[in-house]
Amino acid sequence: MELFTPDFGLVFWMFIAFIILFVILWKWGWPVIIKNMEERADTIDKGVEYAREAKHQLDNAREEARKYMEEASAKQAEMLRDAAKMKSQIIEEAKQQATVEAQKVMDAAKVSIEQSRKEAELQFRNEVSKFSIEIAEKMVRKQLDNDASQKALVDKMLDEIEKN
């Protein structure tokens, strides 16, 4: 039974060894261990703080990226509106120019037609007057075949001149 119940000397020396070990650990071991644990805790705290700061920066970066995306979308929409407005304006200007050109062509055609009509009218009048003169000439020759008719015509004209 000696194995199960130690002697007093064994317990005493074990107690002395424990006290010496405890004092050595208390003096040199525990401060180093505690210091290392505190450094490790500080390192962990710094890591946690760094992670929080990184998360905060990431959140800020995401928010900033979202703002840039919104600005880009707004600018894109504005550019599309401006492009559509410019397209409408260009189309309207082209229509106006086409209308002006068509009006110029129509006016030129009207002037040309009017000029051609006047020329034709003038030519017609010249032809009619030429024919009238020829007809009058033939009639006067026929009427003025004899001297009596010539004298009557001259008297008649002189009377008309005197009346006017």
Write down the Rg: 65 Å
Q: What percent of residues are in strands? A: under 5%
Order of helices and strands: HH
Give the CA-based shape. rod-shaped
Q: Which structural class do you get from the secondary structure elements? A: mainly alpha
Approximate helicity band: over 70%
pLDDT under 50 segments (min length 5)? Answer: none
- The biggest beta sheet, please? none
The total count of strands amounts to 0
Mean pLDDT: 89
Compute the separation of the termini in Å: 184 Å
Number of distinct helices: 2
Describe what this molecule looks like in 3D.
- The mean pLDDT is 89.
- The chain has a domain at 8-118.
- It is rod-shaped, with a radius of gyration of 65 Å.
- It contains two helices and no strands.
- It has 164 residues and is mainly alpha-helical.
- The chain has helices at residues 8-143, 147-163.
- The termini are far apart.
